[in-house]
Design brief:
Elements lengths: L1 H9 L4 E6 L2 E5 H11 L4 E3 L7 E7 L3 H10 L4 E6 L12 E7 L18 E7 L2 E8 L4 E8 H11 L3 E5 L3 H7 L6 E4 L6 H12 L13 H16 L12 E2 L7 E2 L1 H6 L13 H5 L5 H12 L5 H16 L1 H11 L5 H10 L4 H23 L3 H8 L5 H10 L20 H11 L1 H16 L5 E5 L3 E7 L11 E5 L3 E5 L1 H33 L2 H27 L5 E3 L4 E6 L2 H6 L9 E5 L6 E5 L6 H17 L7 E5 L3 E5 L12 H13 L6 E6 L7 H17 L6 E5 L15 E11 L2 E10 L7 H7 L4 H17 L4 H15 L10 H11 L8 H14 L4
Parallel strand pairs: 1-5, 7-10, 9-12, 10-11, 13-23, 18-22, 21-25, 21-26, 23-24, 24-25
Antiparallel strand pairs: 1-2, 2-4, 3-4, 5-6, 7-8, 8-9, 14-15, 15-17, 16-17, 19-20, 19-22, 26-27
Helix pairs in contact: 6-7, 10-20, 11-20, 12-14, 13-20, 14-15, 14-16, 17-19, 26-27
Length: 860
């Protein structure tokens, strides 16, 4: 316990797994936490102290089962192992922390998710700007950027790090500007200094200057990058040879998507439970690196024409050449998680089965490279040129590792025959052991004349010869008696002891030799880290483009025509997610949208609730983003000018934890849009102003629209869905504002949603009809219709006067005949009375009928 307390004092904020024999034990508060999360038994023990201490543990071989549960529960877990063989010491076994696993730092396959990066993030604050760094130790990716808090927040929302580091003195600033949903850890302020950062990064990359990485002038990003590297060393993750490059995220290369847009368009996640997102539709990748890259492409769409067109060219080629596409798919399926496997080489954590998978991936690269070289598509040829088949490494793995190796040394054969003569001899000793013992038994039986000799083994004195008592007088004098049984005697011989030492020594030597040979192979593999990482990037790119081709063929997407213009011209556009969720046989009703900066800058869309206004807004933004990711789009045709920023203000939600109302959230998001406009921006506004009173809302919506139209810096393309029909008047005043509505058809008392965008405004929202569809009680609906009719009839613009008049009319309505009320009981009474023939009714029958009617309303 003294040893435990010394180690625990170095990691006070981590849950310490302390190796004791075959178990990992936890003590005290750690035990209470572990027992609660892992659902294991909590016990108490004195452990040499006067008071009892809580204790909870699990077998060491179950670490892969229990560790992920602790990490996902948000714990930092320090793994304390025995650092020496207990057989080699007579004192307490030396122990030490071999790894500190945190939500953002892990190599464990059970902790990591194959289709997601496990990013560790660091933020360095400086005034109203910040530097940010993202590192995934499991893949070697290392990215940095700097900018305003809004830009950094956008990156964090896109990269979704599992853990965020920041300065201890900046907790208030972090909480003010960033989401509280991430696991955070605070580091000492001295870590966030430029001198330490330059020295730390230069030492890691073995360079004198950071100019070669393009970040020499980015002090904030450099400091953040250094902080994540420092944290890795602090958590005992000092084997980072696979982190060979640091890249800056260039703000001017990618479309600006703020966190509201990523959320509102439901690109990667949704606040609605079990909702389908855009990534669910587009991700048909077959490799984990491909899936991770696709998420990156989605939050960082390109805004340079040439690379976008290159991606479209590859997707088009794959669609036009299905045989090539199928061959590519069959080989990509063999790749596996190349990024994480090669990262394990650097850390020495790779197991023999993963080495075989690496060889399988390298073998699959050859036909991919050959096929891409033959393709009449320049981007594919470029990818082929960047693929390295690593022939020498592949041949060595095939020669040195057996076809189906054990998962670890000591669990079965790993090194192939023919690699090491001594290893082969030792294996032969083991493999021929049974034959040797059988021959020895037969020889001794013949020499002694004892027919029932038995040779066996036990842990007390090893191999022995057993002779029944009836034949013990025939036992040779040189045999040494070791044990007397009731009916037999057990002996050993010099030959048997020599054979035993040879057999037992062979197993130990085999383990030693295999470990040595495997270590030499892994060291040789480490020299291939860089080319294999480059291979992984190229193959992930192919996987993403193959996924785009597959989706385009399945869902009939078209190749967008990208250009440098300022217009968006979509014919028969569709929402990819909604379309996917339609019942079988039901077609999505497509729509045309045209926007430009000169003639039709702002489209004001009115129309009923549930008619499809919001879907139309979102699909326009999604089609532009999909095109700039490199995907084909859900439309008959699309001519799209590049957009550089996509802003959305959609839906209503409170931020109660921060004390912000629906309207405050709405205004914050809208302010962010108006303060960051550009000529190529695409803005989606849905129901601006509805979080406040009607006239306030109309006033704000009007002024926002006018600001967007009259802005001297830029005329951003805007789609504005609203229920404020008064805004339709703006098209009479401002020449680039056009009115459209999503049409409906009224048949009797029913409303049919046509979901088609047509020119002109709408003056009706059909809200009561939607309430009816939602199952609102009939009485509420009838009252709503009465109130609506009166409001429409008395509409004067003075809401206060209208409200007084309405109240008076409602009071008068209370005096109306009950037969006008649509109550089932009253209607039944009405029918009874209407069916009475007064001319033939006797007084007695009249009394009886009146008694029946009283029973209808429960009066006896």
């Amino acid at each position: 316990m003294k040893q435990y307390n010394q180690i625990k004092s170095k990691y006070p904020d981590a849950l310490l797994l302390f190796r004791v024999g075959d178990f990992y034990e936890t003590f005290g508060e750690d035990a209470v936490k572990a027992a609660n999360v892992l659902n294991i038994v909590l016990t108490k023990r004195k452990n040499g102290t006067a008071s009892e201490i809580a204790l909870a543990g699990f077998p060491h071989h179950s670490l892969d089962t229990y560790l992920p549960k602790l990490v996902r529960a948000g714990f930092r877990v320090a793994i304390c192992d025995q650092l020496e063989d207990p057989k080699m010491t007579k004192t307490i076994v030396k122990r030490g922390v071999t790894e500190l696993v945190t939500p953002g730092v892990s190599y464990n396959d059970k902790v990591l998710e194959g289709k997601q990066n496990n990013f560790l993030c660091a933020i360095h604050f400086n005034g109203n700007r910040a530097g940010v760094a993202f590192i995934d130790v499991s893949t070697g990716e290392f990215l940095v950027a700097e900018g305003g808090f809004e830009y950094v927040d956008k990156l964090i929302q896109g990269f979704q790090p599992k853990e965020i580091l920041y300065q201890k003195g900046e907790q208030k600033k972090y909480q003010e500007h960033f989401s509280d949903k991430f696991y955070t850890y605070r580091l000492d302020d001295w870590v966030f200094t430029i001198d330490f950062a330059n020295e730390n990064l230069a030492k890691h990359f073995e360079v004198k200057s950071l100019k070669g990485f393009g970040i020499a002038h980015m002090d904030l990003a450099t400091i953040a990058g250094s902080a994540v590297l420092h944290y890795l060393s602090e958590t005992q993750h000092d084997k980072t040879a696979h982190i060979k490059h640091i890249s800056r995220i260039e703000e001017d290369k990618y479309v600006w998507l703020d966190r509201f847009t990523i959320r509102n368009l439901e690109l990667l996640y949704s606040y609605n439970e079990d909702a389908t997102t855009l990534i669910d539709i587009l991700d048909q990748t077959v490799t984990p690196p491909g899936s991770r890259m696709l998420k990156r492409w989605m939050v960082l769409p390109l805004k340079e024409l040439a690379p976008i067109q290159e991606r479209h060219e590859v997707v088009d080629y794959l669609i036009q050449h299905p045989e090539f596409k199928d061959e590519l798919l069959s080989q990509l399926k063999e790749i596996g998680d190349l990024e994480r496997i090669i990262s394990k080489v650097a850390t020495g954590r790779i197991n023999p089965k993963e080495i075989v998978q690496l060889n399988r991936a390298l073998t699959a690269i050859e036909p991919i490279k050959a096929a891409c070289n033959k393709a009449k598509c320049k981007p594919l040829v470029t990818i082929a040129d960047n693929l390295n088949t690593c022939e020498a490494l592949k041949e060595r793995i095939q020669r040195e590792i057996t076809e189906d190796p054990a998962v670890a040394i000591g669990k079965g054969e790993v090194i192939a025959y023919g690699v090491n003569p001594e290893l082969d001899d030792l294996r032969n000793i083991l493999n021929t052991g049974k034959d040797y013992l059988e021959n020895l038994k037969n020889r001794e039986a013949e020499n002694t004349g004892i027919p029932s000799i038995k040779i066996a083994f036990n842990n007390v004195f090893g191999y022995y010869i057993e002779v029944r008592n009836t034949h013990k007088d025939k036992v040779p004098a040189e045999w040494i008696r070791k044990q007397t049984l009731v009916n037999a005697e057990r002996y050993i011989t010099e030959e048997l002891k020599e054979y035993e030492s040879k057999i037992l020594g062979a197993e130990e030597k085999i383990h030693t030799l295999e470990s040595q040979l495997l270590g030499e192979l892994i060291n040789a593999m480490a020299t291939y880290i860089t080319p294999i990482q480059h291979n992984a990037v190229q193959l992930a790119k192919l996987d993403c483009l193959h996924s785009f081709a597959n989706i385009a063929m399945t869902n009939m997407y078209c190749k967008p025509e990208m250009n440098e213009s300022l217009s968006i011209d979509i014919k028969d556009g569709r929402h990819p997610v909604i379309e996917h969720q339609l019942p079988v046989g039901e077609d999505y009703i497509s729509n045309d949208v045209f926007l430009d900066n000169d003639r039709q800058q702002i489209i004001m869309i009115t129309g009923p609730n549930m008619s499809g206004k919001s879907a139309l807004l979102r699909q326009t933004a999604i089609i532009s983003l999909m095109a700039q990711m490199g995907s084909f789009v859900p439309a008959a045709s699309a001519k799209l000018g590049l957009v550089d920023k996509v802003f959305t203000r959609v839906g209503a939600s409170d931020n109660i934890s921060s004390g912000e109302s629906t309207f405050m959230v709405e205004m914050n998001e809208t302010a962010s849009i108006l303060n960051n406009l550009s000529e190529r921006s695409l803005i989606i506004l849905d129901e601006i102003g509805r979080g406040t009173s009607t006239y306030d809302g109309i006033s704000i919506a009007w002024s926002i629209t006018e600001y967007l139209h009259q802005n001297k810096i830029a005329n951003p393309k805007t789609l504005f869905a609203t229920h404020y029909h008064e805004l339709n008047e703006m098209s009479q005043i401002f020449d680039r504002i056009k009115n459209y509505n999503v049409s409906v058809k009224e048949v009797g008392n029913k409303v049919i949603f046509m979901r088609k965008l047509v020119p002109g405004g709408s003056a009706h929202s059909f809200g009561i009809h939607v309430a009816k569809m939602a199952g609102m009680p009939k009485e509420v609906l009838q009252k709503a219709e009465q109130v609506l009719l009166k409001l429409e009839k008395n509409h004067s613009g003075d809401l206060k006067a209208e409200a007084k008049a309405l109240a008076a009319e409602v009071e008068a309505d209370m005096q109306l005949s009950f037969f006008q009320l649509d109550d089932p009981v009253l209607m039944q009474i009405k029918e009874e009375i209407e069916n009475i023939d007064i001319d033939t009714l006797t007084p007695v029958e009249a009394l009886m009928k009146l008694n029946e009617i009283k029973k209808y309303i429960g009066v006896k």
